What does this fold into?
Amino acid sequence: MNLNKPLVLMTHELPEDWVGELLEDYHVIKGINEERGLDSSLIKYLDKAEGILCLLDDPIPAEHLERAPKLKVVSNMAVGVDNIDLAACSRLGIAVGHTPGVLTEGTADLTVALLLAVCRRLPTASEDARQGRWTNWDPTGWLGVDLKNSIVGIIGLGKIGSAVGERLAAFGAQIIFTNRSPLPEKEKKLNATQVGLDELLRTSDFICLHVPLTEKTANLINEQAFRKMKSSAILINAARGSIVDTTALTRALKEGHIRAAGLDVTEPEPLPPSHPLYKLDNCLITPHIGSATFQIRQTMAKIALENLSAGIKGTHLPYCANPEIYT
Ligand code: DGY
It folds into this structure.
């Protein structure tokens, strides 16, 4: 091991042309791609590591951080940092890097794609065509619901929620939203109305989740929430799986408490192939691809490396999720 260079533990391989040169300044030890978090091949180097480069499904718990006295930075190639014990990092003076902004538009695009695919029943229609069940132009076949004049409820009008609101307002939907703080400018821009969660759940035709996963938002959409929704409601989740109670969602879809769901994120993630949600034709599931474009993923990697480099140099991270460590 060349310890003239700072040691970086990298949980997952990234394409050479995304990170190649940027990693040359470090001695990098890579983990096993199929494993999540710091696998045993990485854990044994924690005492010497100055940086960790990880992905959003790599748990980085306090017990690992506490075994890394030299660790200066945990750089997550994601905007969400719910996989990292942020409080422990702050307590230990470890900077946490993330990648906000770059995936806003792409994730909003994917949210709208999911919503349209679910409300116009694209997976069922496509499968029926493929299987020879398209026998005539059927006046009552594959009917979906209109987006125009519908009420779209956005839970969390941050960057991604606002970008979704802009897109859906252009489709002629009426936007309502919940947010921690009042947002009069966004209300004006989107011709939207800020409401309480109960009202949003009761009145929305489409409900889109765009809050980060925190203690407060975990299981926010639970059995009681589903009972409040219209039986025609469609739920779209491209935020974090744990915001929705998966068992309650499965029941709501099976028993018709809501019409359908589009999920880019699930709990657990990945959702095992045997999961009952896959058997429901009113549920469309994609494998957490909100940011999956060549351009976005490459930029995310670049920002993650910039954060890593700043952290190891001891300078302010360009995108820091726990800026309190600097005060
Ligand atoms: C993130 O970066 O947190 C997103 O979920 C990736 O798609």
User: Anything to note?
Assistant: The chain has two domains: 7-102+294-326, 104-285. The CA atoms of residues 129 and 135 lie 9 Å apart. The chain is about 30% helix and 15% strand. Residues 7-102+294-326 form a domain with the Rossmann fold fold (CATH 3.40.50.720).
